[in-house]
Design a protein that fits this description.
This protein is mainly beta. The chain is about 15% helix and about 45% strand.
Length: about 140
């Protein structure tokens, strides 16, 4: 499970706007990092665990309503009860900011790193149930025509 990545994809909406100009608060990305950590801990230990602390957070670019994010995380170190996790958030679709067409968006040619962080989560020993597996992680789209 070490270095196995999980990804959450989300669209930022007008509901997520916190500042003028349609800007979204970076705290939303931190919340999404927490959601990714929860999935990683469930997969690794069968329990949601607790987030103990971030040791690094960097914001690299602004976020706006209409943007699509991919939020990635992976466990890079495992202790007896601690799990150290790396996080990265990328913008993959951006609002085109066309006044005549406010719903226009652009698929970015390369994902844009907007934030990264690392932190430690804890799963108490008595709650560790072992690695959880499933057979649908690598499923593709519907092949029926």
């Amino acid at each position: 499970m070490i270095n196995q990545k999980v990804m959450l994809r989300i669209r930022l909406s007008e509901h997520d706007v916190h500042y003028g100009g349609g800007l979204v608060d970076g705290a939303l990305v931190i919340k999404l990092f927490g959601d990714v950590a929860t999935e990683l801990l469930i997969r690794h230990d069968g329990d949601e665990g607790l987030f103990a602390a971030y040791d690094m957070i960097e914001f690299k670019a602004q976020l706006c309503a209409g943007d699509f994010l991919e939020v990635w995380g992976w466990i890079d170190r495992v202790g007896n009860t601690s799990r150290h996790i790396q996080f990265e958030a990328y913008k993959v679709i951006a609002n085109a900011e066309m006044k005549e067409c406010p719903s226009a968006c652009d698929l970015l040619p390369e994902p844009m790193l907007v934030a990264r962080a690392s932190g430690t989560c804890v799963v108490p020993r008595h709650l560790q149930r072992g690695q959880q597996t499933c057979n649908y992680d690598d499923r593709g789209g519907n092949d029926s025509g």
